[in-house]
Amino acid sequence: MAEVILGRNLKGTFSGTLVGVFPKITLTFRKLTKAEMNIIAPILDSGTQSLTYYDPSTNSNKTLSTYTGDWGYENKQIMIKNDSFNCTFISRERRA
Fold first, then answer.
1. How many Cβ atoms from other residues are within 10 Å of residue 85's Cβ?
2. Does the residue 96 lie in any domain?
């Protein structure tokens, strides 16, 4: 995910300044039991998470400090719907 500050210059041309590229990882969780949901919900609800993933660009594991997006009241109805769901983890720091 790229963060851009947008605006128009004096000629009216639309331009922007790239603030940085913030890695974003989306996970799909299978249908969870109530016990599993009780374990994972507090992690997704917390202000930050530590996420380790394999980065094929550098051929190494990386650890990010993230926050979750796409985790709202609608997704917490999973136990009623009995379905899988997605959750997005967004880096709190831009890519170097």
1. 19
2. no
Per-residue pLDDT reduced to its tens digit, 19-41: 788 889 998 888 888 888 889 98
Is 25 part of a structural domain of the chain?
yes
Which residue segment(s) compose the domain that 83 sits in?
A: 2-91
pLDDT band with cut points at 50, 70 and 90 for residue 80 = low
Contacts 24+ apart (CB under 8 A), 66-73: 66/25, 66/90, 66/91, 66/92, 67/92, 68/44, 69/24, 70/26, 71/44, 71/45
- The total domain count for the chain is 1
Q: Is residue 16 part of a domain?
A: yes
